[in-house]
Amino acid sequence: MLVGHTHFDHAVDAPALARRYGARAYGSASLGHLMRLHGLGELAVEVVPHEPYELGPFVVRFVPSRHSKLLVGRKVPMDGELTCDHLHGLNPVSYRCGAVYGIRIEVAGISLYHQGSADLDDRELRGDPVDVFLAGVAGRSVTPHYWERILPKLDPRVVVPTHYDNFFTPLGQPQDFVARVKLAEVPREVGQVARDAQVAALPRIDS
Q: Which residues contact 88 (CB under 8 A, 6 or more apart)?
């Protein structure tokens, strides 16, 4: 499991999946702390930025990044390290963001870049083109010139919007979009910056 940051909607199920499948979880120090709270510290790998990790046929690198400032464009929600000292204290607000990473994945001659939140550290994201950009699009409206900053560096052939679902929807209920995501605007936004990039949509799994 590759975890870009430790907000609850990105990390809450990592320990359960690790326990069920004996899977390692790669990510920040906050993720390591979360895994230890669940008694799974031996399955946590605290990553070194830009270090290549060979996972079967995959080569994975974690690129230091930033979370979008979703709180009126001024603040990252639940910023800081996850420091809760007991499982009973793990309410949604306790899942602090921790360090934020974009994740570059190479396999079978194909390269992908996963960006879980719509911001970036311009100094860390080197001009290294990818085939597929998995673009978290929630929060892009509060990040100045987001597409103009990230698309020229990644130069993707395909942009796949992600992280537009409403993760506050109760389990078992029909899925809908997160507030103000304006998903239909993504092809136009991308096309204004990267005319050759194709925008592709993942199929819905709740219908």
A: none
